[in-house]
């Protein structure tokens, strides 16, 4: 019997044979642009609980979707695994339309990260395009749901019952989607909050984690609506805000702090999609035409004699 309180396991994509085997992938060709992930902060800030770099883990996850592409990562600050090193050797060449695509590992517009990327690209003289961050995107709500469920703050499956009362005192009855990066980030977090509320059946509101007055106002709004166990769910991979800052904010406002998003296969898929968007805009990846599609088979499509 299936346990409804457990999320289904996330499987890596299966590779299929054929020219158009995967909408995220294309046949290897000379000059395929590299995919460079820009990790905010320093390498020390980007280490997970096991000491592994988030960028390295994300590179492995993205490689499952784009195995034919050279994948690198670099940090916007510090000298260890710097973004400048990741951009080395990506100068303009007549043999390829583009040397690389930079995907910022942020879930919303982040002025500091954007400025650091622009500086690193200019200093390296790299022939690259910089994509948008990983959000806003509908899959971010699912990743937030996963993190909250792993911490025991919400049900693991979508709320399907009329009653949304928490089963015990450890589960949240209201969620704050915490944004890092300013007003633009709060707007992106608002989209995620709406989608997350639909999944959980709870009140979910966005707030700027860098603006304590705004965060206090949002938590007060939740409490006025009857929330007694609010949880702050950071919509960030991790380097953007430290665990100490998160726990300090949660304690100050009588809430609990969820875990950052960290490296996740869904985030890897979004990064692969951002890369594909740039290649589509350059005409490198195009959907198959009717002439390129294989002829239909079966009794209904037999040629007339």
Task: Describe the protein.
There is one protein chain. The protein is α/β, with parallel strands linked by helices. It is 33% helix and 12% strand. It has helices spanning 54-63, 83-86, 111-124, 138-150, 183-200, 212-224, 243-252, 265-282, and strands at 34-39, 71-75, 100-104, 128-130, 174-179, 203-208, 230-234, 256-257. Helix 3 (111-124) links the parallel strand 3 and strand 4 (128-130). Helix 1 crosses helix 8 (265-282) and helix 4 crosses helix 5 (183-200). The N and C termini lie far apart (53 Å).
Helix content: 25-40%
N-to-C order of helices and strands: EHEHEHEHEHEHEHEH
Report the principal-axis shape.
Answer: elongated
The major sheet is characterized as: 4 strands, parallel
Reading side by side through the largest sheet, how are the strands ordered? 2-1-3-4
β-strand percent reads: 5-15%
Number of strands: 8
The N- and C-terminal alpha carbons lie at a distance of 53 Å
Lay out the secondary structure.
Blueprint: E1 34-39, H1 54-63, E2 71-75, H2 83-86, E3 100-104, H3 111-124, E4 128-130, H4 138-150, E5 174-179, H5 183-200, E6 203-208, H6 212-224, E7 230-234, H7 243-252, E8 256-257, H8 265-282
Parallel strand pairs: 1-2, 1-3, 3-4, 5-6, 5-7, 7-8
Considering the chains and any ligands shown, give keywords for the structure.
305 residues, alpha/beta, four-stranded parallel sheet, 8 helices, 8 strands
What is the structure about, briefly put?
33% of the residues lie in helices and 12% in strands.
